[in-house]
Every structure is written in C-alpha cells, then in structure tokens.
Amino acid sequence: MPADPQRSVTSEPPRGAGTSAVEVRRSPRRSRTVSAYREGDRTIVLIPARMSEAEERRWVGVMLDKLAAQESRGVLGDRELTERALHLSEQYFDGRARPRSVRWVTNQNTRWGSCTPSEGSIRLSHRLQGMPEYVVDYVLLHELAHLLVPGHGPAFWRLLEAYPRTERARGYLEGVVAAARLPHPPAAGEAAREE
Q: Is the pTM of this model over 0.85?
C-alpha cells in the first residue's frame, strides 16, 4: 500500500515535542488554519496541503509550543518549583546550585526572575505561569546560575550553554516583551480612536 502523501510522520520528535512523535496531516480543504492536538503518544498537526516544507517545520514548532503552554497551565506550586530547580541543577550544573527556596512572586513586573545568592533564594515572576515549560526551565536555570556566578559575564553564559533551549527561550521572552509594547486593537464593540 503506498504512503499517503497527505500525511507525514517524523520518527524523531522535534524540539518541544517531549517524547511523542509528530504526525503532520495535510488537507486540501484547509486553506489557512493550523491546529494541533495530542493523540495517545503522538502529536497530530493539521495544516493546509499547499504549505511548503519550511512553512510546515515552522508551524509544527509553533503548535508544539502552544500545546506545551496549554499543558503547563497546571501551574507548579512553590514546592514543585523548588523540586524542578533541584532537578535542573542536577541535570545541567552537576547539582552545584542548591537553592534554599524557590517561589512565585507577583511583585516582579519588569523581570522574569531574581535571585539573592547570600540567602539562596530564587523568585520567579507570576507572568511566567502558563508559558511553555522550556521557558520556565530557562528562567530557573538563569537564576540557578547566579547562585554560582554573579553578574552576566562570560563564565555565567558558559554555564547556560549547557541548556540546549537557551536561545529559543530567550527569543520567546523577547517576543513577549515586544508584543506587550504593540498597540492593542480595540475590543469588540469598541470604536477605534484616532489621536
């Protein structure tokens, strides 16, 4: 039986897919929309048939990030956040960064996280809640690195090179900041004002 040209399956999951395989389904009836959902141990991404392979790769990444964000909305409590930080320290820093406390705070609106090395405390902004797990992990690792190296010099950034999603997470956070600066369209039913 010949392979279905409307379906493609990646044998290795792309970054962001966790351990599940990704199946892309192309539809001639789908003109613009892209959607994705989990089905057992695989992720199904539905795209228009006319999309190029480059567009497919880009949209698969976007949809995997969206699914990860939706799934991470079951927000970790402070205890789970501390456990996550300890796990990340073991995985990327040989367990050398040992925070005494890790918690969410609501008073950090211009930073994603902060750290007080003398106390061993890490605080993450509540604005990270609901973002993809790899973004929260990056911010945790960033603050864990400050327990080992003060400032943002070369030694600090060398530590973060161990995390393979550093650049992607930084790009995500930069996008969030940039989007917040964009003018917002008027809400439904609200007239646009010209100034």
A: no
Q: Which CATH number fits domain 78-180: 3.30.460.80, 3.90.180.10, 3.40.50.970, 3.30.2010.10?
A: 3.30.2010.10
Residue 86 has pLDDT above 60, yes or no: yes
- What number is the average pLDDT over the span 21-28? 90
Select the more confidently predicted residue: 172 or 195: 172
**Position of tokens 């402070």?**
78
pLDDT of residue 39: 74
DSSP string, the chain: -PPPTTEEEESSPPTTSTT-EEEEEEETT-SS--EEEEETTEEEEEEETT--HHHHHHHHHHHHHHHHHHHTTS---HHHHHHHHHHHHHHHHTT----SEEEEESS-SS-SEEEETTTTEEEEEGGGTTS-HHHHHHHHHHHHHHHHS-SSSHHHHHHHTTSTTHHHHHHHHHHHHHHHHSPPPPPTTPPPPP-
Domain ranges of the chain: 7-71, 78-180
State the pLDDT at residue 1: 38
User: What integer best gives the mean pLDDT of the chain?
Assistant: 82
